[in-house]
Amino acid sequence: MKTKSLTKVMFLAVLAGTAILLSGCAARELIVSEILRIPEQATVRTTYNLWYTDPMNMDTINHQQGQIIPFGTEVVITKATEEEIFFKTAADGKEFRIVFEPHYRLQTPEQYLQDLFTAKTEDELRDGLDALTYEKVRRGFVEKGMPISAVLLAFGPPCKYRTPDPSKGTWLYPVAYLEYKRVLIRDGKVFGIIMP
Hints:
The chain is an alpha+beta fold. The protein has a domain at 32-145. It has seven helices and eleven strands. It has a six-stranded mixed beta sheet. Strand 9 (170-176) and strand 10 form a beta hairpin. Helix 6 packs parallel to helix 7. The termini are far apart. Mean pLDDT is 89; it is low at 19-24.
């Protein structure tokens, strides 16, 4: 009789321990309005072009393949945790999911959200770009002579694991697995692009 009750107690202890462990493994939910320092109902837009081949499995590296969500696109963030971000485009309700990979970005999920989304309008983001440059950047094209601001809108900030110091003048952007485009910067402008 003692053995049965001891077994039952051990089973309940293991069950309780498992429940505690599993509940502790859930990713922490992020409060986007606090991170972006905006009111809860404020309009949120993409800060730069987001590239994707699978809308429900986007990566933080922003491989330049597939389709583009242009910078300045109004989005609704439906959920954000330390591991993933769910959002939809306001115009058509298309859903997206970004898997956060801290080892590639070398930044916290909060820092990544601050880079990725903004309360600025599209006009504020494109400030200083002429009409032709604006159209090229929205389509993901960067060319010699464009300002750094155009590169940041077209491709986003370079991943720190490949470009640890952007002030050095060479920014690497992934175009495919282990293939990188080099954007050479001098005096605040693009002076060359080296394709893989």
